[in-house]
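Protocol check, entry for the methods section draft. Step 1: assemble the input record (protein sequence plus ligand SMILES). Step 2: submit for complex structure prediction. Step 3: store the structure tokens unaltered in the notebook. Ligand used here: zinc ion. Step 1 record:
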Amino acid sequence: MSTQLKTLTLKCPSCGAALDVAPDMERFACGYCGSEQIVQRQGGTVALKLVTDAIARVQFGTDRTAAELALRRINDEMAALDAEAHEIHLVRGANIGPGMLAFMGVFALAAFLVAQSVEWEGAPVCIIIAVVLFVIAAIVHAQPDPHKDRLEELKKQYEALAEKRAQQKAIVDT
Ligand SMILES: [Zn+2]
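Step 3, stored output:
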């Protein structure tokens, strides 16, 4: 508290010269380099700020508000992408993919080998099922998967947004 009542010697933030700052001074020009200073008093501390810095700060404040709005928008967009990707995963999970079909084919093939070894008459049926499953798996595998393409697109958009978010976040956090 007493620091605010006596004259302080502070360094000019522009040229580094020692300046005497009287308790009632709020704004003055450095006697050495002429740069304009604002005396900032906060609690027990007193600091000098160049007027140009103070103006930059006002400009920065508007940038920050814009960044905060942008951040909110980016977060909403990312949440929407997330929701769509989640839905696609649910649909794909419910479908039987080529991997699953091939696995069932291997199972049928194993059943055929067992059936043949015990000379069960149903063995030919097993090999037919196995072949059919492999063929279907190959056909399904060859089909273009629009879900997969969309997921890749979503992932790209998500990454681009994450990059933008980091940039805006840096402005907000500074
Ligand atoms: Zn100076």
